[in-house]
Design goal:
binds alpha-L-arabinofuranose, about 725 residues, disordered N terminus, 13 helices, alpha+beta
């Protein structure tokens, strides 16, 4: 296979709107600069070389350009300095697609989904919209003194003493914060202006937005009357964004009392903090302090922008809650579902010792099931099988873990009168969740007790829930499994060249036995950086291979899904965010090319290729209006343009001609280009509507590009008006 260039030389980048020659070229191409090249409100910067590539693809395949215009364009391009296409010899390849039903196979409805792991603060400080970090002062566990980080103290030792004790009213998280205020509003030791107290900066700053409301809840106890100011402020505490006072008599707060206030922000600050302050002498205890925006997806607690990015992938399943997060470095620190359900105040939280951070477990087992339902995705629950990275339970003593898994299934699926089903019902979901898949552990196949433990879980689950599909950690792609399973995990993290060449990975896999679940895949290391085009192209090639083998590959998900840019534990990731912004890496955008594949029909296609750096596939799929498309996807992983001659055979006589079709391209000036908060769409798909397409056609595939052509079957009439010329990308 051709080696992929690691990077291209520096190229001249021009701003389309400042550079007259680019604008002229675009106009000649029929692209209206602002409308056609503007995505999501940001300007796309293209190199002149890329413009010429675009021009060639338009001229060769889809646009009927008058000859004079063509020559004018070539003339102009000759005067553009320092640009040459000499190094870009066009290769030719042929793709024969058999669109007849007899040569097709159905792609499983479950093929493409997502894998959510609590890694990189994906949930706590990410998708889960809770603004307070360490809300019960419990980080570090139940010992005291506890770790109150990231809470900090306002005031010095002469005015306030802060400690922790085990006096909370919550049995599973006994630690509470004790605050002794030594100063007063007047007298000899007057409190500093603004009072003394504590503040929490959340997860690298709270995003407080003007006009939005936030519910602040906390538990308090005191021996005297209280007068507490609850406020959102700027990171230095000097500007107040929203504030209210809570005043209560001593008798009202002599026992633990829940306080709840709604704060509406009068200003925006993406880096604010929550303060609890007072200027009243006395001793107070605080516990379980929460601040939630009211504006979350359906009020279910998911941060809207991040939820939407997931919904846009249209995931058919969601595997959760990890990965290594499920295993733990040590069993004592593994995620345990029972500690993550019930009222949020009563959850103990835990320290995830693989990714090394504390989570309050606001995003618990129930919330994951709710997330699946909200996304219209099937939940795939990965549970601990009595094995962590460093310790394991012997098979002879694994039954408590088995019972924990069975109880978890009852929680998800049991009748609301059952023991655990009633806990779910009390949390607001009397109907069972649609849990059909479970994975017994993660990446544990090679460990001593895996098979023994696995069989204990397998037998017990199949006995109680015969319909549940069970996923083994042992790779069955090259040899048969030595134990029963419905699916097996397949994980791959590798270089771009390796992953691209793995588009044939499942070609030889036996069609007997369990199906493959490619539950984690990604290009990693130098080729990937923090999310490069190169990585994304290799992944696109790999996914085309999975589609082709989707008679045996039933599911696939990229990993990891999210990264909070303040806590990069793993690179790269699909979605990058901070307190208020988010963008997709090129790998995210590749996944969007495959949203229509799940449940579609794979067409037999033969690729006669000029280079090993090319893979292509064809499917038919229907949109929600019932229109049928043939989608051709092609990854050109090499550095030459490829002239792809497409021939579609086997269509019925009424649909011989194809029209009203679109082309979507993912490419960029440099292979290692990445998106960023400043340029979130630097490497993102551009979709244009094609005016002409045919059963026999020739399309140009740009070097280092992923292109998808959607050919609408002519039997469905489509009227194109001038205004419709540019279709805003659906991906
Ligand atoms: O996706 C990151 C990690 O990679 C997962 O936790 C683990 O399953 C794999 O090793």
């Amino acid at each position: 296979m051709d080696r992929v260039e690691e990077s291209e030389g520096p190229q001249e980048i021009v701003n389309l709107y400042c550079n007259p020659s680019s604008t002229i070229i675009l106009t000649i191409l029929g692209l209206r600069p602002k409308a056609d090249m503007t995505r999501f409100g940001s300007y796309k910067l293209l190199s002149i070389r890329t413009l010429l590539r675009l021009f060639l693809s338009q001229a060769m395949g889809y646009r009927k350009l008058p000859c004079s215009v063509l020559f004018l364009c070539i003339f102009i391009s000759c005067f553009i300095p320092h640009q040459s296409l000499d190094d870009e010899e066009n290769l030719t390849a042929k793709l024969f697609i058999d669109a007849s039903e007899r040569s097709s196979h159905p792609i499983p409805q479950t093929l493409f989904g997502i894998f959510f792991e609590e890694i990189n603060h994906a949930g706590a400080g990410g998708l889960w919209a809770e603004l307070v970090s360490n809300r019960g002062f419990e980080a570090g566990g139940s010992n005291i003194p506890s770790n109150i980080d990231p809470w900090s103290i306002i005031g010095d030792e002469s005015s306030i003493i802060v400690s922790t004790d085990r006096s909370s009213c919550f049995e599973r998280n006994k630690v509470a914060l004790r605050m002794e205020v030594l100063c007063n509003s007047e007298g000899a030791s007057t409190c500093p202006s603004g009072g003394v107290g504590i503040y929490n900066p959340g997860f690298w700053g709270m995003n407080i937005e003007q006009g939005k409301s936030y519910k602040v809840v906390f538990y308090v106890r005191s021996t005297e009357a209280i007068d507490i100011s609850v406020s959102f402020t700027s990171s230095n505490g000097l500007q107040t964004l929203a504030s209210t006072n809570i005043i209560a008599s001593a008798s009202d707060v002599s026992n633990w009392t829940k306080m709840e206030v709604l704060l509406e922000a009068k200003e925006t600050d993406h880096n604010s903090r929550l303060q609890l302050t007072t200027s009243k002498k006395g001793v107070l205890w605080f516990d379980q302090v929460s601040a939630m925006p009211l504006d979350t997806y359906k009020g279910h607690g998911f941060r809207n922008d991040l939820f939407q990015m997931l919904a846009d992938i249209k995931p058919q399943f969601i595997r959760f809650p990890g990965g290594c997060f499920v295993e733990g470095e040590w069993l004592r620190n593994a995620f345990r579902w029972k500690a993550s359900v019930g009222p949020w105040e009563e959850r103990p939280g835990h320290f995830g010792d693989v990714w090394m951070y504390w989570t309050d477990d606001g995003l618990g087992y129930f919330e994951f099931l709710q997330l699946s339902e909200d996304l219209g995705a099937l939940p795939i629950w990965v549970f601990n099988n009595g094995i962590s990275h460093n310790d394991q339970v012997d098979t002879s003593s694994v039954l408590p873990f088995v019972q924990e898994a069975l109880d978890g299934l009852e929680f998800a699926r049991g009748d609301s009168s059952s023991k655990w089903g009633s806990v779910r019902a009390a949390m607001g979901h009397p109907e069972p969740f649609d849990l059909r898949y479970v994975a017994i552990g993660n990446e544990d196949c090679w460990k001593k007790n895996y098979r023994g433990n696995y069989l204990k879980f397998y037998d017990a689950i199949k006995r109680a829930y015969p319909d549940i599909k069970i996923i083994s950690n042992c790779d069955g792609s090259s040899r048969p499994l030595d134990h029963p399973a419905d699916l097996y995990d397949f994980h791959v993290y590798t270089s771009a060249n390796n992953l691209f060449s793995m588009s044939n990975q499942f070609d030889q896999t036996s069609r007997q036995g369990p199906k493959a679940f490619v539950s984690e895949y990604a290009v990693t290391g130098k080729d990937a950086g923090t999310g490069s085009l190169l990585a994304a192209l290799a992944e696109a090639g790999f996914l085309i291979g999975l589609e082709k083998n989707s008679d045996i590959v039933q599911m696939a998900s990229y990993a990891p899904l999210f990264v909070n840019s303040n806590d990069r534990r793993w690179n790269p990731d699909a979605i990058v965010f901070n307190s208020f912004q988010a963008y997709g890496t090129p790998s995210y955008w590749v996944q969007r090319f495959f949203t229509e594949s799940s449940g579609a029909t794979f067409l037999n296609a033969t690729l006669q290729k000029a280079s090993a750096s090319l893979v292509a596939s064809a499917i038919t799929w229907k949109n929600s209006d019932g229109q049928t498309y043939i989608r051709i996807k092609a990854v050109n992983f090499g550095s030459n343009s490829v002239n792809l001659q497409v021939s579609v055979g086997g269509l019925d006589p009424n649909s011989v001609k194809l029209s009203g079709s679109t082309k979507t391209i993912l490419t960029s000036a440099n292979l290692m280009d990445e998106n960023s908060f400043n340029e979130p769409d630097k490497v993102a798909p551009i979709q244009t509507l094609l005016e002409q397409a045919d059963k026999e056609m020739s399309v140009l595939l740009l070097p280092h590009s992923f292109t998808s052509f959607d050919l609408l079957k002519e039997s469905v009439s489509l009227r194109i008006t001038a205004d419709d010329w540019f279709l805003k990308s659906s991906i």
